[in-house]
Fold this protein.
Amino acid sequence: MDFLKMMKQAKQMQEQMGSLQEEIAEIEAEGSAGGGMVSVKVGGKGELRAVKIDPSMFKEEDVEILEDLIIAAHNEAKAKVEQAMQEKTQEMMSGLGLPAGMKLPF
């Protein structure tokens, strides 16, 4: 394999990774639980951006259920963000012409 070609591909990959990180920061996913009673929005870096709770959930005896629903909604949104990140990474890698099966540390 040509060393200069490898260096050019490495530089291209570095530039694409920077672009990918910017795209990931812009990703937002919503997760819900309890039939939509609780919903959350999560950003591309896993940060919780918003929480919406149906007012009917504000009963003292339902606090524990509400806490569990918030966690479930967050986990769903986070899984969606991770899936979107994986898809974007695969798209970027497919255009580099690397050997099939080559794994990179991310």
About this structure: The chain has two helices and three strands.
